[in-house]
Design a protein that fits this description.
Layout: H1 24-27, E1 34-45, E2 48-59, E3 63-67, H2 74-81, E4 89-94, E5 97-98, H3 104-111, E6 114-117, H4 129-140, H5 145-158, H6 174-185, E7 192-196, H7 204-221, E8 224-228, H8 232-238, E9 241-246, E10 251-257, H9 258-262, H10 268-275
Parallel strand pairs: 3-8, 3-9, 6-7, 7-8
Antiparallel strand pairs: 1-2, 1-4, 4-5, 9-10
Length: 280
Amino acid sequence: MRHRTHTHTSPAPSTSIPHGATSPDAVSNAVSDAIIRVRDLTVRFGERTIFENISFDVPRGKVFVILGGSGCGKSTLLRTLTGLVTPVSGSIEYDGTEFLGSRDEARRAILRKFGILFQSGGLFASMTLAENVALPLQDATSLSEERLGEIVAMKLASVGLQGFEAFLPAEISGGMKKRAGIARAMALDPEILFFDEPSAGLDPISSAALDNLICELNTALGTTMIVVTHELQSIDDIADEVIMLDRSAKGIIARGTLDEVKAITDDKRVYNFFHRIVEA
């Protein structure tokens, strides 16, 4: 598969970040062309704090990876960014428009900006791939059946599933289900695609093929990709910019381009993650 060339310029040198130093000023993290801006975001479930006062920007048109060990809040952050989890406090802006607290048409307009691929693919088992991909189009548009079929076929072909329109999810492989899920997430031509552990449950070849597809779609369409993963090979193959979460810190401990974060040696949590070192 094609490997990413990590030559992008970061807005500021990357360093490890002490717990608590996650305000915008403290991390010097402003991105001039950010499609998403997150400020002082805190999520708690009861008495348990998942992350606290985290701030970061997602650059437009890049593959932005949220990484870290199990239980650090990666998937919770993705669900918060997409409105599935309500934070205790903080701000999430999409192209300068506040998402948290938005209602009615303003909220729907933001939701139309993104598509989501969940870990399982999220396909309806009783519906064909074509019917699954058509769902968001039927909900948001008044397209004719003929035009709808053309778009569905195009979306499935774009992820390598031409000719599989009439197949049920049970009749295809796990990797193909993920591809079909991407086709459905892309149905309304969103500016942003979210991926929650896209390689979960896939064999190495299928995982590599999916990583390659993510890179190809990002290059061809300029779609901003936000990917949650802890898979080192996938991170290396797809990431432009990354943030690293840590469960004990309850926040971001590193950020920057992938090469910059991998070069960090003064924080054992970051170094050990990328070098697969288990401390006694």
